[in-house]
């Protein structure tokens, strides 16, 4: 019974120790899992470098001499390879510096071109303004010429109309001065001569009538007054015309009053 009591008293203490051990083991397990996750992240992070080193090792040639150790041959091959890479990088650096210098020269030339362009802009603007003024002046001159041509056309048409009216008036007067419509001349100066002779005849007739109604005077060819009746200028005559073309009578006929009413 005493042993049984002793066993019963030691049971709870063993259970507590086991719980503590389990807790410690669980903590260690959590720490190990955390370390495992960290290592996995590092492996993933450095996987690229690992692949690169593997490719470099694959491309490095093996040592040719049998007496050399593999490690030394590997190191020498790596040194030679990186020496070549360094030489290539130096050449690339030189080309890059040359390209940079060329780029700087191009930039300087571009800046000079921009400065020249900025300097040319004012003069080009002045030339543009002058050309615009000349263009406007030319347009105004063309408009004035068009106006002058239009006015000349209008004046020419009015002059033609006036000439046609004058010609119609001369034709009408010539028809009235001629006893027969078939005897009317066709030329303009001939018609003017006909009208002038008709007017002179009428003037002579009127003068003769006035002399008959007034005091009688002696008529003679030597009398300067009688000779002055037929000394009228005839500027429109272009050809000789017979005296019989227009009948003259010293005394007024029955048509005298009708003809004098025309003028």
Write a structural description.
With 263 residues, the chain is mainly α. The chain has a domain at 187-260. The chain contains six helices and no strands. The chain is rod-shaped, with a radius of gyration of 69 Å. It comes from Sus scrofa (Pig).
Entry keywords:
mainly alpha, 6 helices, single chain, rod-shaped, 263 residues, Coiled-coil domain containing 197, CFAP_domain-containing, disordered N terminus
Break the fold down into its secondary structure elements and pairings.
Elements: H1 2-45, H2 47-59, H3 70-177, H4 188-213, H5 224-228, H6 256-260
Helix pairs in contact: 3-4
What is this entry, summarized?
Residues 254-263 have a biased composition (Polar residues). With 263 residues, this protein is mostly helical. It has six helices and no strands.
Strand % is under 5%
C-alpha Rg, in Å?
A: 69 Å
What count of helical segments does DSSP give?
Answer: 6
What structural category do the secondary elements indicate?
mainly alpha
| DSSP E strands, number | 0
Low-confidence stretches: 1-10, 64-68, 217-222, 225-263
Q: What is the residue-averaged pLDDT? A: 75
**Mind summarizing the main beta sheet?**
none
**SSE ordering:** HHHHHH
Fraction of residues in H or I helices: over 70%
- Structural shape: rod-shaped
Distance between the termini: 188 Å
Protein name: Coiled-coil domain containing 197
């Amino acid at each position: 019974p005493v042993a049984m009591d002793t066993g019963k008293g030691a049971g709870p203490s063993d259970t507590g120790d086991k719980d503590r051990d389990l807790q410690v083991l669980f903590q260690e397990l959590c720490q190990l899992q955390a370390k495992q996750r960290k290592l996995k992240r590092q492996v993933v992070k450095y996987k690229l470098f690992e692949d690169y080193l593997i490719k470099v090792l694959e491309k490095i040639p093996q040592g040719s001499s049998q007496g050399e150790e593999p490690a030394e041959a590997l190191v020498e091959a790596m040194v030679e390879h990186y020496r070549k890479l360094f030489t290539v990088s130096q050449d690339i650096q030189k080309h890059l510096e040359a390209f940079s210098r060329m780029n700087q020269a191009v930039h300087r030339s571009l800046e000079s071109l921009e400065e020249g362009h900025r300097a040319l802009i004012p003069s080009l603007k002045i030339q543009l303004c002058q050309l615009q003024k000349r263009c406007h002046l030319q347009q105004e001159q063309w408009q004035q010429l068009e106006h002058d041509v239009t006015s000349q056309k209008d004046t020419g048409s009015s002059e033609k109309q006036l000439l046609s009216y004058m010609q119609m008036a001369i034709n009408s007067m010539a028809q009235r001065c001629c006893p027969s419509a078939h005897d009317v001349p066709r030329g303009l100066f001939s018609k003017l001569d006909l009208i002038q002779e008709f007017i002179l005849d009428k003037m002579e007739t009127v003068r003769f009538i006035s002399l008959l109604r007034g005091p009688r005077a002696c008529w003679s060819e030597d009398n300067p007054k009688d000779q002055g009746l037929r000394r009228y200028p005839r500027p429109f005559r272009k050809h000789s015309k017979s005296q019989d073309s227009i009948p003259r009578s010293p005394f007024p006929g029955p048509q005298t009053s009708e003809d004098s009413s025309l003028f």
